[in-house]
Amino acid sequence: MARAPKSMPRQVGAVSADDFRVAMRQVASPVAIITTAHGGQRAGLTATAICSATTDPPTILVCVNQSARTEAVIAASGRMVVNFLTEDQHEIARLFSTSKIDTEKRFSAGEWIEVATGAPVLKGSLASFDCVVESVTLCGTHSVYLGRVEALESNDGSPLLYRDGYFRRLGTHF
């Protein structure tokens, strides 16, 4: 169980990384597999720090830890696919969430197709966005990518969410 975060600090810079992490774990986020390919090498990881940046032109913001092998492949290729997962794809999310599992074993789960750039797209995902990297900004431990969407596919389904350290499904609507 998460511990309660501290109350609002009175001075700037008083927020610890732990307090920030605890507070952010309370916010439900969609789960996506970020994939790419370069030089015949596929790479991918599970991510939750993703959002639309603008609709004109269609652009997605993705945050990737700089220590992840996939980050280097995105940087080299200048391409990425954001595959938002359905609740039925939680096992695929688990496979891509650890570096302990071999890349090809990760891609053995689910059905993957390659777009013209060679980047893998997960069939049956809630939505997949094939992007060209427009810009990247370093922010602490992460690279913040803006990807211009060049192609997309969307399907019906219930989104996979991540909150408080667990994958979750969407509940009742109001």
Beta fraction: 35-45%
Work out the count of structural domains. 1
Give the class-level CATH name.
Answer: Mainly Beta
The number of helical elements comes to 4
- What is the element string, with H for helices and E for strands? HEEEEEHEHHEEEEEE
- Tell me the CATH topology: Pnp Oxidase, Chain A
Mean pLDDT: 92
The tally of strands reads 12
Q: What structural class should be given to the helix and strand makeup?
A: alpha+beta
Distance between the termini: 27 Å
Strand order of the largest sheet: 3-2-6-9-10-5-4
- Largest sheet geometry: 7 strands, antiparallel
Helix coverage percent = 10-25%
Any idea what the radius of gyration is?
A: 17 Å
Shape: globular
Give the low-confidence spans.
none
- CATH evolutionary superfamily: Electron Transport, Fmn-binding Protein, Chain A
Q: What is the second-level CATH architecture?
A: Roll
What does this 3D model show about the protein?
With 174 residues, the protein is an alpha+beta fold. It has a single domain, classed as Electron Transport, Fmn-binding Protein, Chain A (Pnp Oxidase, Chain A, Roll), CATH 2.30.110. Helix content is 17%, strand content 44%. It is built from four helices and twelve strands. The strands form three sheets. Strands 3-2-6-9-10-5-4 form a seven-stranded antiparallel sheet, sandwiched between helices. The chain is globular. Keywords: Oxidoreductase. InterPro entries: Flavin_Rdtase-like_dom (IPR002563), NADH-dep_flavin_reductase (IPR050268), Split_barrel_FMN-bd (IPR012349). Pfam families: Flavin_Reduct. This is Flavin reductase (DIM6/NTAB) family NADH-FMN oxidoreductase RutF.
